[in-house]
Amino acid sequence: MTVNRVIITGASGPLGVMMIRECIDRNIRVLAIVRPGSKKIGDIPQHPLVTICELDISEIDRLEADTYGPADVFFHFAWMHTSDEERDNPVLQEENIPASLKAAKCAKEMGCRVFVGTGSQAEYGLLNRIADENSPTDPNTMYGITKLAAGKLVMEYCRQLGIRCNWVRIFSVYGPFENDYIFTSYLIRTLLKGEKPLLTPCGQIWDYLYCKDAINALLLVAEKADESGIYCLGSGEARLLSEYVRLIRDAIDPDLELGIGYRAYSDNQIMHLEADISKLRQDVGFVPKYSFGEGIRETIDWYRLNN
Questions:
Q1: Is residue 305 part of a domain?
Q2: How far is 100 from 106, CA to CA, in rounded Å?
Q3: Largest Cα–Cα separation, the chain
Q4: Consecutive H or E run containing 151
Q5: In this structure, how many other beta carbons lie within 10 angstroms of the beta carbon of residue 187?
Q6: 14-25 vs 211-224: helix axis angle to the nearest 10?
Q7: At what angle are helices 211-224 and 292-306 packed, to 10 degrees?
Q8: With a threshold of 0.90, does the pTM exceed it?
């Protein structure tokens, strides 16, 4: 299908901002939904193709097609209560389920033919191996439990509404605009200050995907997927976390010290996180374009200019 206009929730988040930038490059009109008072609203590009609507995701059902016009695709990136303190709070996490269902209903009312929701590798829990769409889901955090529940409910609701729904389980994405507590962000910011990051032994096998590749994959799903379903989104390749850490350090300054082994692993540390992207490759032709080295250099350049 041809995509001419999209709606994006969580528009001031990392994926939202990068999606808007890509849509501008492709001459796609964007209705950007952002939380009122968001400190990151300034990250949203100011452009004639972009209309910003300050609206809490819990009130997304107030959006009216008569005011903003119809759209083709609804990208649901918004998720409330993502800080470390709130991710395991069941009462707070539960608020995301009705908000996601309201988003699906809004997509239908706004004329969208496709709803793309963003899930998480957290839906698998302590799987510790390569994960595909059919791998068992046993989330061990309230965040993962709620993502899994929201995905299942939204897919069924979209079926009832008569629109295609694709739930994309995102693994580890890195790039600009990330929150400070994200591992790659912490590492880059610390090293750019010439300080030593305090790390675990970094023996995990990990799968990192550059944000521009992630955005391309999501657009391919919107445009080319034939039916509703789940997709795993990662690079499809994994390496030791210590290798990623050294590549980031070397891109900044090879002489900087790394505090590998200064911290112990957490009690529920996942030691193998890797996405099988065979279905994504087969269905929509997704192939990552950026090596980790290329993506991390662009990311570091952004941090140099914006921190």
A1: no
A2: 10
A3: 59
A4: helix 142-161
A5: 20
A6: 60
A7: 110
A8: yes
